[in-house]
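re the bet — no i am not wrong, look at it urself. input seq straight from the record:
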Amino acid sequence: MRHLIFLAAFGGLALSAPAHAAPTWAGAWGYAPADSGANEPEQPAGTYRYRVRLTQAGDAMQLTLSNAEGDKPLGVAGVTIASPTGPLGTEIGTNPVHAIRFSGLQSVALPKGGTVLSDPINAPFHIGQDVIVSVSFSTPTRPGRTNLGMEMAFAPTTPGASFTPIKARPYLSLVSIRAAQAPCTVVAFGDSITDGYLGLSPQTRGWPGRLAERLAALPAAQRCGVVNMGISGNRVLKAGRATSALDRFWRDVASVPNVTHVIFLEGINDIGAGSESGPDAVTADQLLYGYRQFVARAHALGIKVIGGTMTPALHAGYMSPAKEQTRQTVNAAIRSRTIFDGVIDFDAAVRNPSAPGDLRPEFDPGDHLHPNDAGLRAMGDAVNLSLLRP
């Protein structure tokens, strides 16, 4: 059988036949799937564009599309990648567009609860590079909402339709890069504070985005890719938004190629959504049990878990002094270094020194729970990079 070799410009780079000296696939970008809910507006058949910032360098890319928590099967009419025309936005102008295949097919079924993996896209990619991924659906979709500043756009499949900004969780859930050198890959795992909820920056998604910027400045032998698998509303012990942290470990951590570390920051939704007392209250012991279960899953695969202390939330709507005491008890256990392989004191990075149950005023956007962009940057700066050494 003849093998077709072709060259096509991709943002000034050449697409070519696979290189033979790139041994490792590694996660370079992620966005964990979450349920959309019956009240979410349905979008007609059309195309979503996502601006993806890569945290690994290599010679090939592979995409994972997910309908893990969708309410019906979807039809994918086609997927493409291209370079953006500018430093912001999802416009591609006249830049060349490269079609993505799925086992050689342009269109593919995305079953309810399922995922599909693309064929490799062979081209050089670098850390910090932005690419525009366009996913076209032949069926209506119901994507979940997001309050992030991430750059996305949607256009219906109608003549003359233009792309308009949309804040929705993408069906694109993972971007992997085939790297000649990928010493470590970090999955940032948690709830809205990891997801980057209320973050306004389109370029730096939450504290994991800031962490990725810091890692990119290191020598190549120390650079880790970062995959953000935070989900707003997620819980450790039971389903909140999306399935529980314990159940989604296999989907959102174990599936990431070359994952070596997890930074785990979750539990405030368990405490806040529970009652102050009685059978519906979440105790410190219950939450610590969940942490140990998560760590056991990771250790079974040789993955290190770095635990993050929960950030202040005393005056958030669902908290109370009793629940704040539970947070403090759990944080003390995290700091004891008996549960995780290392500790990041996110609480200390953003708390108000004169009112430790609250965020610093300059980090509080007003809901007393989610740090703003300045607070998320402080969290990313609080990570001791030596914890992530291969």
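see?? Confidence is low (pLDDT under 50) at residues 1-9, 12-22. told u. also Residues 236 and 245 are 5 Å apart (CA to CA). so pay up
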